[in-house]
C-alpha cells in the first residue's frame, strides 16, 4: 500500500451506530439493512456493549446524518417495506476484509480487548481458526499505513496485551479497578442470542405499531 489511509475521528455516538450496523450485518442478516427503530435498539443493547447507552431515535438520526456525509453509511429502500433502512459502507470506504471488519467492530462495541477475548467474542462476526490468526489481523491493522488499532501498555499483573481502535482519535485509557476476567465462549453465545432476540422484538413492535396505525386510520 503506497499511501497511508486517512482514518476518520468519530464521536462516541457515531461509533456506536457504526459498530451496531457492522455487527448486525453479520449476526442478524434477516433484519439488515436496519430500520431506525431496530438500529436504536441495537445501539442500546445491554449485552456486548461497553458502555451501555440509552439513545433516543433523534440521537441516532444525527449520528446517521454525520456518518452518511463521510460515506460510512448509506440508506436502502425497496422491498415490501417503505421504511428507510441503513447499512454500513466500512469495507467499501476502506480496504479491509471480513476478519479485519470483525476485529474493528468488536473493539468499537466492547472497548479494549486482548487477542484471546477477540477470538472468543468474535462469535458469528467471523470464525477465526487460531489465536495466531487474530494476532496477524491485529498486527496488520496496527501498521503505519493502516492505523486502525494500537496496542496498549500492559497493566500490572496482566498477561495478555490489549488492543484499542483509533477511530475515535488517540485513546485516553482510564485505570480499571475490576479484574480482567477471561471471556467464555458460552457467555459470548448467550449474548449473541439475546441480542438477536432484542432485534427481533424491536422489529415485531415496529410492525405491530404500523399495523395498528393502519387499522385505526
Order of helices and strands: HEHHEEHHHHEEH
CATH architecture: Orthogonal Bundle
* Class by alpha and beta content: mainly alpha
Determine the fraction of residues in helical runs and give it as a percent range.
Answer: 40-55%
How far the N terminus sits from the C terminus, by CA atoms, comes to 58 Å
Q: Give the name of the CATH superfamily.
A: Winged helix-like DNA-binding domain superfamily/Winged helix DNA-binding domain
* CATH topology label: Arc Repressor Mutant, subunit A
Q: What's the gyration radius in Å?
A: 18 Å
What is the total number of structural domains?
Answer: 1
Structure characterization notes:
The chain is mostly helical. The chain is 48% helix and 10% strand. The chain contains 8 helices and 5 strands, in the order αβααββααααββα. Strand 2 (73-78) and strand 3 (81-88) form a beta hairpin. The protein is globular, with a radius of gyration of 18 Å. The N and C termini lie far apart (58 Å). Residues 177-185 have low confidence and may be disordered.
Give the secondary structure arrangement, pairings included:
Layout (H helix, E strand, L loop, with lengths): L11 H16 L6 E2 H8 L13 H13 L3 E6 L2 E8 L1 H4 L4 H13 L4 H7 L9 H11 L7 E3 L11 E3 L19 H32 L1
Antiparallel strand pairs: 1-3, 2-3, 4-5
Amino acid at each position: 500500500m503506497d499511501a497511508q489511509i486517512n482514518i476518520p475521528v468519530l464521536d462516541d455516538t457515531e461509533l456506536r451506530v457504526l459498530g451496531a450496523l457492522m455487527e448486525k450485518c453479520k449476526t442478524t442478516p434477516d433484519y439488515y439493512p436496519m430500520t431506525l427503530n431496530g438500529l436504536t435498539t441495537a445501539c442500546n443493547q445491554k449485552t456486548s456493549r461497553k458502555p451501555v447507552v440509552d439513545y433516543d431515535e433523534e440521537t441516532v438520526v444525527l449520528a446517521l446524518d454525520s456518518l452518511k456525509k463521510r460515506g460510512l453509511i448509506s440508506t436502502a429502500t425497496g422491498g415490501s417495506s417503505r421504511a428507510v433502512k441503513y447499512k454500513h459502507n466500512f469495507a467499501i470506504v476502506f480496504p479491509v476484509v471480513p476478519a479485519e471488519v470483525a476485529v474493528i467492530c468488536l473493539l468499537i462495541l466492547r472497548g479494549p480487548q486482548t487477542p484471546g477475548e477477540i477470538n472468543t467474542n468474535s462469535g458469528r462476526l467471523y470464525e477465526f481458526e487460531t489465536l495466531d490468526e487474530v494476532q496477524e489481523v491485529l498486527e496488520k491493522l496496527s501498521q503505519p499505513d493502516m492505523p486502525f488499532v494500537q496496542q496498549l501498555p500492559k497493566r500490572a499483573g496482566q498477561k495478555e496485551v490489549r488492543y484499542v481502535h483509533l477511530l475515535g482519535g488517540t485513546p485516553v485509557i482510564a485505570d480499571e479497578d475490576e479484574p480482567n476476567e477471561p471471556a467464555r465462549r458460552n457467555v459470548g453465545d448467550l449474548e449473541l442470542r439475546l441480542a438477536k432476540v432484542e432485534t427481533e422484538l424491536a422489529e415485531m413492535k415496529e410492525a405491530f405499531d404500523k399495523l395498528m396505525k393502519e387499522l385505526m386510520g
